[in-house]
Amino acid sequence: MGSQTNYLGENYTKELETPTNITVKKILGLLMGIIDEDDERKSEVISLGIGDPTAHSCFHTTNAAKEAVVESLLIDKFNGYSPSAGLPTTRKAIASYLSRDLCYELSPEDVYITVGCTQAIEIAVSFLAKPNSNILLPRPGFPTYALCASYRNIEVRYYDLVPQNNWQLNLEAIEDLVDQNTIAIVIINPGNPCGNVYSYDHLKKIAETAKRVKTLIIADEVYGHLAFGETPFIPMGLFSSITPILTLGSLSKRWLIPGWRLGWFVINDPNCIFKSPKIIERINNYCDICASPTTFIQAAVPKIIENTKEDFFKNTLKMLKKNSDICYEKILEIPCLNCPYKPQGSMVVMVNLNIILLQNIIDDMDFCFKLAKEEYVILLPG
Question: Where are residues bearing N6-(pyridoxal phosphate)lysine located in the sequence (predicted)?
Answer without folding.
Answer: 253
